[in-house]
Amino acid sequence: CHPVPKPESSMEVCNLSPCPPRWKVTPAGPCSSSCGLGLSVQLVTCVQIHQGKEILLEDRSCPVSEKPLTSIPCVIRMCSYEWSFSEWTEVSASCGNGVQTRQDFCLSLLTRQHVNPIFCRRFPKAIVLRGCSAGPCPEQVVGTRSHGAGLQAVTPATYLTTTPTDNGARYKDLDLPPSPVPAVPQEQTEKTSGGVCGKLFLDATGVINMTGVESSDCTVAIGRPLGEEITVSVLESSLNCSAGEVVVFSGRMMWRTGCRKLPLSLINSRTNTLIVKQRVLLPGNGVILQYNSRNATKKYYQDCDKQLFGPRGEIVNPMQSPGRRQEAVCRTFINVAPQHHIAIRALYIDLGDDSNRTQFNYILIRDVSTMKTMVFHGKQQFFWQSTGSQAEIEFHE
User: Fold this and answer.
1) Measured between alpha carbons, how far is 367 from 248 in angstroms, rounded to an integer?
2) Do strands 266-268 and 306-308 pair parallel, antiparallel, or not at all (unpaired)?
3) Does domain 306-396 have CATH number 3.30.428.10?
4) Residue 156 neighbours by CB distance under 10 Å
5) Which InterPro entries does the protein's record reference (predicted)?
6) Which CATH class is domain 81-134?
7) Which residues of 286-303 are buried (b: 16+ CB within 10 A; e: fewer)?
8) pLDDT tens for residues 101-129?
9) pLDDT above 70 as % of the chain
10) Taking the CB of residue 228, how many other CB atoms lie within 10 A of it?
């Protein structure tokens, strides 16, 4: 190009308007737990690029609905130790009510050998003493016995009430929600398909007919006390697999879908709750299920965990007397009918003196349908809503 005159180089500004504000996330910090589930904190700031430079703005300048989580769950590695137990002893009484005990020990998952209990001190430990019954004594009058003795009753959560004698003054300045809606009735065994969708079944056993429903998506939920697990067998199925019709079984510890050979299937939830969702395209098709509950084959909860099924209630943590340290991470499981959602409002939080307000002192709420978690620190009187019908709360420290 040497013979050709070279034009002068020039530079033009193409756009003078600043870019819209956006959220900026720095890499997450270390995990709060050396093994198992923990939390990692990441810094989330609102920034704007203006003439090639990044400017820090107030959080309100960025869309609140798009703000990333500041605390995210993390797992560095699976824990190498766990509590293990001996077999239960014989019932202490030959008849009537008695107790059973068992020994606990700390087990190394690598060597399968017993180790010093100090290695398991931060892990929840199952019960080592339980009540039981050896049957009525001869001198007792034989009466009706309830099944599942020793298990907690399946009742809705207690209603939140405040009286002049129960510290109700601490709620007087808060904007409480309006009066509770009527309670969701406990569902009995469904003989017909009418109105079965969106229901919560709390009986120990029953039959659910999900055929002939009008909705393309039909969801039911089954709930039992902690300490039980639910099994479901498919009695009949008229699903059209080639048309994409399917039934989904989901719980806290399992997920299973199916269409073909369903009448031969037996589904075990492995926990005390199960959701069944039927997706059908053709009217009249569906499945008929029979569910049963039994004592769980493996401990999946801590002794301080609670299960709530009611439409409204109060959650208090810690449950034990003041001054007694809470070793395990206590959880509250909330399950309502699939047609409802859950709202949680923090009414009162007291963390004591400043020395107890650490980064490991927080409340974690998990939306089970999306598996998204929110973490609340300090004395924040928060309000939280779920996208589905299941929620879990963890109280740390």
Assistant:
1) 19
2) unpaired
3) no
4) 17
5) ADAMTS_ADAMTS-like, Sperma_CUB_dom_sf, TSP1_rpt, TSP1_rpt_sf
6) mainly beta
7) bbbbebbbeebeeebbbe
8) 888 888 888 788 888 877 776 666 677 77
9) 75
10) 22
Which DSSP symbol is given to 119? G
- Please give the pLDDT value at position 157: 32
Helix intervals (H) in 241-378: none
The one-letter amino acid code at 243 reads: A
Quote the tokens at residue 264.
């031969």
H or E segment and range at residue 73: strand 71-75
At 305-330, the pLDDT tens digits run: 889 998 888 888 765 545 555 556 78
How far does CA 380 lie from the centroid of its chain?
21
Strands 330-335 and 306-308, bridge-based pairing: parallel
**CA-CA distance, 229 to 214, in Å (whole number)?**
30
**Quick check: 44 and 28 in contact, CB under 8 A?**
no
Class of domain 200-295: mainly beta
pLDDT tens digits, one per residue of 340-357? 999 998 887 776 665 445
Tokens of 144: 């009706």
